[in-house]
Design goal:
alpha+beta; four-stranded antiparallel beta sheet; 11 strands; elongated
Length: 320
């Protein structure tokens, strides 16, 4: 974004601050071009920001430029109506999706405190009147430090040492080459190469007791898709019954009706083979009936009895 030359000097100083916020480092010539001034004026604006308590670091040399001092926290936000609405909607939706409730409430309160009175009232009206068809999720919130450590490790390809607590409460230590973080159905997951098992594994981040970055590096294998791996891993979670059914439809239609997190789908000559697991076969019978596809049960044989029971119950309901 460039700023027109006739702008008031104060406006240009604020525009420079915005550019410094948006860029880790930006050259003096580039700043001058975007602000419509010369480099000498840029130096004067940097000094003016310093007088206002905003620490601007000027770096000399061929690759020098200007940047904000690391760790500096800016004063209250300046948001347009559209930006404030976007922030509030994002935080409200995040709470419904299972993001940490205390953090979202605190962030919402901080945003509202720094808004002008008129805009604050409009945003509060949005909060008071907005309804969701999606019920709020009560998911375990992960430790923020663990999330940030794992994200940095995945980006920088640095191995991490995890202390992990299983669903049974057993703690183990393992080295992980993190491939990526995935937010799925209200929970955070990390997937990567687990050196303890020698396999690609998926871990719930809310069960990570600690995550310590190491020095060893690694490469992520070509073709690895963390989202796909997490959804497939969750579909393979052990349940009481393994189910295999031939659905007489095409793969595209089956994928539209069946989430990847609940079943594995494979195209075959007669349709699509759905492989999944179920804790209760009566529930699986209802799910198959709800899909609306003709189907052939391959296993387990007991599922046929539950489908017949469901058919009789529906027939009785139809005759009432």
């Amino acid at each position: 974004m460039s700023y027109p030359a006739p702008s008031h000097p104060t406006t240009r100083v604020l525009a420079m601050l915005e550019l410094l916020q948006a860029n880790h480092r930006i050259g003096g010539a580039e700043l001058a071009r975007r602000l419509g001034v010369d480099e000498r004026t840029v130096r004067r604006y940097a000094a003016r920001l310093g007088d206002l308590g905003v620490p601007v670091v000027a770096e000399r040399g061929r690759h020098g430029g200007y940047r904000l001092m690391p760790g500096y926290k800016l004063p209250p936000l300046m948001l347009t109506d559209d930006e404030a609405t976007a922030v509030v909607l994002g935080l409200l939706a995040g709470r419904r999706l299972g993001l940490p409730g205390q953090a979202t409430e605190s962030a919402l309160a901080k945003v509202q405190r720094v808004l002008p009175a008129a805009l604050r009232e409009r945003v509060q009206a949005l909060r008071d009147t907005l309804g969701f068809t999606l019920a709020a999720r009560d998911a375990a919130a992960p430790d923020t430090g663990a999330v940030l450590t794992l994200a940095a490790a995945a980006r920088e390809r640095r191995r991490v040492r995890l202390r992990y607590r299983s669903w049974q409460g057993e703690e183990t230590e393992r080295d992980l080459d993190a491939y990526g973080l995935v937010f799925h159905s209200g929970r955070w997951y990390v997937t990567g190469h687990d050196h303890r098992s020698g396999e690609i594994r998926t871990f719930r981040v809310d069960r990570v007791v600690s995550a310590e970055p190491g020095a060893a590096g690694y490469e992520i294998p070509a073709g690895v898709d963390p989202v796909q791996h997490v959804t497939r891993s969750l579909a393979r979670v052990p349940y009481a019954h393994e189910v295999e059914v031939l659905l007489e439809t095409d793969l595209a239609e089956a994928r539209r009706r069946i989430p990847a997190s609940t079943a594995t789908l494979a195209e075959t000559g007669g349709g699509v083979v759905m492989t999944t697991r179920a804790e209760r076969l009566d529930g699986m019978a209802r799910m198959l009936a709800g899909l609306g596809f003709p189907f052939v049960i391959r296993r387990p044989a007991e599922l046929r009895g539950h489908v017949r029971d469901l058919a009789r119950s529906l027939d009785e309901q139809a005759g009432r």
